[in-house]
């Protein structure tokens, strides 16, 4: 089974996240393949000192690892064991990381999710938006590390409220094997570009993050024609290709009213979605493909490329929309 964690990682308009989903699309914070393959030797999850509840868990496999916990495995407190220490940067609270993972039900011993099977890693931010067990287990670990985590039912409560086909019960311990693939930048980085004279104004908060888009005397009263993108910061990464998974920070405003209706900065976690596949509003598909990773772009979206004339019936923002998007990663 693959993709089960996508229920918990999905975005919901009820939670205030409008962007930039197409109506009727099922969304998942998905991920892509591990960039470097490693030989996965059979290893028992033992620590360097003392005894651990994870001592009896066995991890084996070449390419796609296997996690064997037996049955009726449980822990009283969430705990983690580093099986292989990486040589990359240390992960800290608030960081966003890309990981491959396997998830196993400790009670039954059955695997209920696996990103290796379809080469689709997971992107998660280690803050209050993350499953508490993930933050506890991955905080202060290095990129490149392999980490085994046993998560109590309390620390996995939000996941336990997911689809019934996960086969999880309220008191189940969940065991996760994580390979920390990379740490994702928190904002755009590159060379600043000169704005057009008739461009709307981008506003910034006290931390220097984009906080909205406002009409100026020189900017148009409405966005006519096609969706357009203006590069504010030119990143030095690879160009975004249709079909890739995109990781972005963004803020969205109505135009010309300037009312902010959504912001990943305020949620303190970037958004992840497939680009060029109709999973987002047409404006995003049309303008973000071809941008370079690391860029910050101002998107001007006429109503027909946003949520259309019937946006209010869908409880979506109406009219023309403007977004400032930081392209953090694409894979």
From TrEMBL:
Keyword Isomerase: yes
Catalyzed chemical reaction(s): [protein]-peptidylproline (omega=180) = [protein]-peptidylproline (omega=0)
Keywords noted in UniProt: Isomerase, Rotamase
GO MF annotation list: peptidyl-prolyl cis-trans isomerase activity
EC number in record: 5.2.1.8
Domain of life: Bacteria
Protein's name in the database: peptidylprolyl isomerase
Organism: Aeromicrobium phragmitis
């Amino acid at each position: 089974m693959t993709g089960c964690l996508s229920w918990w990682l999905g975005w919901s308009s009820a939670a205030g996240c409008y962007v930039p989903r197409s109506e009727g699309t099922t969304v998942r914070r998905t991920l892509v393949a591990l960039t470097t393959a490693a030989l996965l030797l059979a290893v028992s999850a033992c620590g360097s000192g003392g005894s651990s509840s994870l001592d009896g868990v066995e991890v084996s496999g070449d390419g796609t690892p296997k996690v064997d916990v037996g049955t009726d495995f449980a822990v009283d407190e969430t705990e983690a064991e580093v099986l292989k220490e990486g040589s990359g940067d240390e992960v800290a609270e608030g960081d966003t990381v890309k990981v491959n993972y396997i998830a196993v039900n400790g009670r039954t011993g059955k695997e209920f999710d696996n990103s290796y099977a379809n080469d689709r890693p997971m992107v998660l931010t280690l803050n209050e938006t993350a499953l508490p067990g993930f933050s506890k287990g991955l905080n202060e670990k290095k990129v490149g590390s392999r980490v085994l985590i046993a998560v109590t039912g309390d620390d996995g409560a939000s996941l336990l409220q997911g689809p019934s086909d996960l086969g999880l019960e309220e008191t189940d311990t969940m065991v996760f094997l994580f390979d920390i693939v990379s740490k994702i930048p928190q904002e755009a980085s590159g060379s600043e570009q000169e704005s057009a004279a008739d461009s709307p104004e981008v506003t910034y908060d006290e931390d220097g993050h984009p906080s909205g888009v406002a009409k100026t005397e020189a900017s148009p009263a409405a966005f006519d024609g096609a969706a357009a993108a203006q590069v504010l910061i030119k990143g030095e990464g690879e160009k975004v290709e249709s079909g890739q998974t995109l990781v972005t920070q963004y803020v969205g405003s109505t135009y010309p009213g300037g009312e902010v209706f959504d912001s990943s900065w305020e949620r303190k976690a970037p958004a992840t979605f497939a680009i060029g596949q109709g999973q987002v509003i047409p404006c995003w598909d049309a303008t973000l493909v071809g941008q370079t990773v690391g860029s910050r772009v101002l998107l001007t979206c006429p109503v027909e490329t946003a949520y259309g004339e019937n946006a209010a019936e869908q409880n979506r923002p109406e009219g023309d929309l403007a977004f400032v998007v930081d392209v953090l990663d694409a894979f």
